[in-house]
Structure prediction request, 149 residues.
Amino acid sequence: MTARRRARVRRAHHDPVRVEELVAFLRADRSWREEVAARLVSRLDQRLVRAVRSCGCRPIAHVAEQLDSQACVDLGPGAPYQLAKAVYGHVHLRGAARLRHTARSLRVLGVYLCGADLAQCPCAEALARDPQQVRVDLVVSGALDGAGF
Prediction:
C-alpha cells in the first residue's frame, strides 16, 4: 500500500507593494506619522530615539535585517541595538515571530525617523518588499498591529 501525500493549501500570492507606491502614499498621507508617534515612539525612551535619529535610518535598517535573517542575534552596545532591544521588549510574541515583528517595527520607526528622501530609505524599501503587505495604506498600521503596538 502506498502512502498518499496531502496537498498543501496554497495561499493566493498577491503582488507586493512597490517602493514607489509606498513612498508616494507616505508623502501624501501624513497621518501615519501621528499613528507611529502615538503607538510606537511614545513607548520608547525619548533619549534613545533622539540618539538614533542623529544616526539616520541606515543603522536601523541594518539591525532590522539582522533580526529578520537570523534566529539569534547578538545585539551590541550602539544606540540602534539598544533601540532594537527596547522594541523587542514591547513585542509580545515568541520565537522567530517576535524577531520578525521586531524587525518590521524597527523598519516603520526607521521610515518615521528618516531625514533623507524616502525613495532612498532602506527601511521603506524593506517594508515594501515584505510579502505580508498587499495594500499600501495598511503597511504601517499592519506592521504595528502585528507586533501588538
